């Protein structure tokens, strides 16, 4: 009995650009795309940057929404504007930084030829949590002192 092939999914990084572009331009693949014309490096770079920008903007929207909601609750409940700004702003910055860490850590591990599927989850989670705590405590220290 033969073993099934192992498929590993991971985020794209800069090192994947050339391979992804070559794969996209293969005739068998291109025929399934929205446009079947041959894509050049410049068009591919624009698409790649747009995909990364979309991830960042999504994290920013989620961060702003959560931060504004929690900040509003603090403001209404405690009538504490500086506290509401600290908590709401910290949540926003923490969520955006978690997105950036989530994009960067697997890419860096892949770049250094380490296995991203094993280390990316725990390393990303530990870094995101550390950044969140540093952001919370630093913003509270700066604004509420």
Tell me what you see in this structure.
The protein has a domain at 51-144: SLC41 divalent cation transporters, integral membrane domain (Tetracycline Repressor, domain 2, Orthogonal Bundle). The radius of gyration is 21 Å and the shape is elongated. It has 5 helices and no strands. It has helices at residues 17-24, 27-30, 41-78, 81-111, 116-144. By secondary structure, it is mainly α. The mean pLDDT is 85.
Largest sheet: none
Q: How many DSSP H or I helices? A: 5
Distance between the termini: 67 Å
Number of DSSP E strands: 0
Low-pLDDT stretches are none
CATH homologous superfamily classification of the domain at 51-144 = SLC41 divalent cation transporters, integral membrane domain
Element layout with pairings:
Blueprint: H1 17-24, H2 27-30, H3 41-78, H4 81-111, H5 116-144
Helix pairs in contact: 3-4, 4-5
Supply database-style keywords.
145 residues, mainly alpha, Tetracycline Repressor, domain 2
In brief:
This protein has 145 residues and is an all-alpha fold. It has helices at 17-24, 27-30, 41-78, 81-111, 116-144.
